Amino acid sequence: xxxxxxxxxxxxxxxxxxxxxxxxxxxxxxxxxxxxxxxxxxxxxxxxxxxxxxxxxxxxxxxxxxxxxxxxxxxxxxxxxxxxxxxxxxxxxxxxxxxxxxxxxxxxxxxxxxxxxxxxxxxxxxxxxxxxxxxxxxxxxxxxxxxxxxxxxxxxxxxxxxxxxxxxxxxxxxxxxxxxxxxxxxxxxxxxxxxxxxxxxxxxxxxxxxxxxxxxxxxxxxxxxxxxxxxxxxxxxxxxxxxxxxxxxxxxxxxxxxxxxxxxxxxxxxxxxxxxxxxxxxxxxxxxxxxxxxxxxxxxx
Length: 301
Description:
By secondary structure, this protein is α/β, with parallel strands linked by helices. Helix content is about 35%, strand content about 20%. The chain is globular and about 45 Å long.
């Protein structure tokens, strides 16, 4: 009898142990054994994983060695390039609109014509983004929106304190202007690894059109470098403006901008426009979705 009771007790203890091994962890600490990751509430709320299904390529590294990544959607020969986060954490909403565009293209692949490939570089200045957000990639808007604009200013510049959008080869100057402030344009055109990464990608891929997001003035701006606006750039400006509802402008003339990215693209005969979001906090996705779709339709066969 004693042996029978002991056997029953052993069976009960074993069963309890198996239960806790299978399903006994608290929900917020359960281990995802398939991915070998903790899926509980200990994951930082600001971190959002990069897209896994899109084709991607690392096109360079920042001053501090962070990857600059391009994501590719579609397989056509006509490439449209979208760039966000040139001013890092200062214009963090341009990073989020770029990621929103990636989500949209991932979920709606049929909007991309068969002859078109869309490339998105969501963060050209990951060091500048990291200064403000604390991570160099995707984050949630709720994690950053409480910061004042003055707190985000250091994130405009890379780790060398250079304004990336003053480091391109169109009317470049080492001392450039931002609003009423003097900022560094670098020691020479393309002195910075971030601008080098974009230059080299453009040189290799030769995109048919480029759209760069900045903030904040609310409009679509054409590009040019010491000359007239190309016919295709003007067409892109009008298409995006008409579809999105942003006003269209032939140039950004609030203050002199030396070493501007899109103007350098124009110098190299690549049609390019700048989309300036209306403020520093809103993504304005509906406007930009309509603009993106209109450009895709424009380049469809």
